[in-house]
Amino acid sequence: MDSVIARFPKTRYYGSKRRLLGWIYHALKDLPFNTALDGFGGTASVSLLFKAMGKQVNFHDGLLCNTIAAQALLADEMPFAEITEVYDFIDQIRLNNGFISKTFSGMYYTDEENRWLDGAAKAIHQVADPIESSIYFYCLFQACLKKRPFNLFHRANLNLRLNHNVTRSFGNWVTWEKTFSDLMKESFQDIQDVIKPAKQAVNILPHGDIFRLDTGYDLVYLDPPYVSLSGTSEDYLKRYHFLEGLSGYNQWHKAINENSSIKAFKSISHISEWQNKREFRERLFEMINKHNQSIVVLSYLVGAYPSEEEIAEHFRKTFKHVSVLKKDFCHALAKEKKIELLFIGSKR
Ligand SMILES: C[S@@+](CC[C@H](N)C(=O)[O-])C[C@H]1O[C@@H](n2cnc3c(N)ncnc32)[C@H](O)[C@@H]1O
User: Is the shortest distance between the CB of 9 and ligand 1 below 6 Å?
Assistant: First the structure.
């Protein structure tokens, strides 16, 4: 499995489990399950693992951009006859003075890049085939992330990228200066290996609140946002609002919070609640209880809220069999080491 995992596309998504998949695989490989819910699916890295294990995969995330990307990554076959079809599509994208150019000048990308993004969003939204369009979006999202300092949209800090007179301890100036079209083509190369038939049909659930999902999966994997002990952190919508905007380009203007200095989306309660220290513990435990007839696997971190002991105690109250696994891990953009936790609970 390690060599299969090594071919999954790399990502810098905040909290992605891409680099922990080998460890997760060893923890799950002998458990008795067929249907699996990848709850809080993010980049679909855990869904790709389930698919490679031959399981029946159900992906879900709160954001539309992640759901579109999952549709691309988990597709059964490449819808293009030749790679040149994709390159020609990318090459015919024309600059357009649209919503992005008018709204985000000086914030995330240069003015010319903004015009290119307007052209790209319009062109992709006109693609009729849903898998083709999700693949173009996947490549566009990756290109957008690669050209951003910290790979995020939580600050309007284009100046960090353009200021050539500073010594940087982060970022990759060479990548930032590549064109969107070149980065899209690189991202397309990255997904060639994963788009292939699944043993059992993959189900991409519509984006929304995880609480709305039905129960009844053999295994429920939960990878919620981490809440720090101080309780202060941006939610995923604030981190990736620009990608969410591209996903619903024609409605973007309606979603923006006019008072936001970074032109972020208006808050969505089910996203912000999962990042809020006051509500998080109760929600997490309610979610575990809801799926208590399934094998529940929860990813979390040491030193976050609630504590390892509190979560372990809740698992022991809910399930007959409980195990807690730990692994030292260095997160993509954080210098300090973290300890990843995997709680596994089952009644049988
Ligand atoms: C830690 S990340 C998951 C990372 C993922 N396992 C991966 O490997 O990429 C948490 C995810 O929860 C999603 N999320 C936040 N609130 C949610 C909600 N109420 N329902 C569903 N998903 C939510 C975010 O969009 C984010 O992608």
Answer: no
